[in-house]
Amino acid sequence: MFLKNYILEIWNAVKSLLKGMKLTGYYFTHHKEIITQNYPEVKQQLPERFRGEVVLIHDENNEHACTGCTACELACPNGTIKIITKFDVSPEGKKKKALDTFVYHLELCTMCNLCIEACPTSAIKMAQNFEHSVFNRNDLTKKLNKPGSKIREGVE
Amino acid sequence: MYRTTDILTNTPNASLSEAGYMVINVGPQHPATHGVLHLVITLSGETIINVEPHLGYIHRSIEKMCESLTYRQFIYTTSRMDYLSSHINNHCCALSVEKGLQIEIPDRAKYIRIILDELTRLASHQLWWGAMAMDIGAITPFFYAFREREMINDIMEETCGARLTMNYMVPGGVMFDLHPNFQKKVKEFIAFFKSKINEYDEILTGNIIFQNRMKGVGIISKEDAISYGCTGPTARGSGVSCDVRKLYPYEIYNRIEFDEIINNGCDSFARYEVRMQEMKQSLKIIEQLIDNIPEGDFQAKTKTVLKLPKGEFYTRVETARGEFGVYIVSEGGTTPYRIKFRSPGFSNLSALNHMAKGNKIGDLVAIMGSIDLVIPDIDR
Ligand code: SF4
Ligand code: SF4
Questions:
Q1: What is the pLDDT of residues B21-36, one digit of tens each?
Q2: Which ligand neighbours the alpha carbon of A56 most closely?
Q3: B120 and B35 part of one domain
Q4: For residue A104, which atom of ligand 1 is closest to its CA?
Q5: Residue ranges of B 177-216 with Cβ closer than 8 A to chain A
Q6: Based on the domain organization, do B82 and B20 belong to the same domain?
Q7: Does pTM surpass 0.90?
């Protein structure tokens, strides 16, 4: 009786191991479905909501919609954004606040999306670029408004 | 900071070290400890006499940081605590702020929140399953687990914009509406995962080596689990009924049909079984909701600047690891006066010494795996 149980136990143990090996063997011989990607050669299309970095949207006339209201700067939890404003003088001689430099510290950004939610004119958005590695840390501090860009007509 | 001499004097019966006891340090950079956890272990031969966790290697003072952040901003920090349950942590913070503001959120947002919570729980349990097997020495399950987890991450990426630290739950609802593909993809995932979950049992649960290493190891009784404050699958594996979703239902959990999984085994294997069954329950919950998401707003109207009335607000939710609580003390301003997070990992870790005592050192990692520790959650 004791011997029978002993052998049975060994048999069950071996069976349980074989069962697992069978599954591994199945996948070993059926590797049609490739689940990895050839990353640097083949780049995957990332979904549009993917948060890679914050960008200021410019249209073809090099115009953006940022009024320099600093709502995004206030919404940001870790001081990633710094809005530097200037005063534009219109032809009628009226002074108007406008964006001078949109400073964005990529190294601080946590991709929380709060700035985009806060912007009243939807001037900024999240871009899909995720390859941010650079050799110099200072390169991560970016100026988002392109040189010579100005605010689009009619955006208040 | 402490010096080498402190380690010796900190352990009980320091004089015994001369009588053949040995003190060794595991971690903080030991890969088997799942992160920067430092364990000081006293051994007699191979038998564990005492385990003393030393924390603080990944302390970021999140609670203090939150005091200077507004009620919209502080939520993102909780994604960095228990990063495998980030949705559920964010959810608890949002609930707490909503409790203070006394706003009712739209039904659609509630459904979205619950579905995403359960998907997060599934992803977390899958990762745990893979990591647990790897702790024991089986590498293959890790890849199988990640194959399924990848589908959830893709769903998250599409709807929330991030794979791990989502920050998708905001006070008043959720940040964006669901992606048009969401329902289709979730259904695909459920069908796929249902066909694969049996493989989990086939390759690991029945395996004799695995069973021998899990059964009768890391025992903690029901009374001890309660007195150490264990929650989640760690406590439910010892027969404690503590599922916040069942006992103190939040959102729409009271309208959903699911079972609280309780196992009276009290050992590592019982905790393993609880999590395996919980995965099936999560699937059941998602299946009930996915076709019935009501139309409507996904966010309630809230003011731009949130101000909580003077008072104290506490909410709790069930994360993949146990009960997570957010306690806000408000002085009426735009930032909290004090925030305290009750993290499940901390109390579960405190029971480690009790579980590991008397076992062999080789079992320590298996026991830690069965508690499912996430160190940033413990340290904050
Ligand atoms: S995504 Fe978040 S951290 Fe980054 S700039 Fe916007 S608000 Fe700041
Ligand atoms: S990006 Fe938007 S929120 Fe930020 S300063 Fe410009 S207009 Fe204001």
A1: 888 888 777 655 577 8
A2: 2
A3: no
A4: 5
A5: 179, 199, 202-204, 206-209, 211
A6: no
A7: no
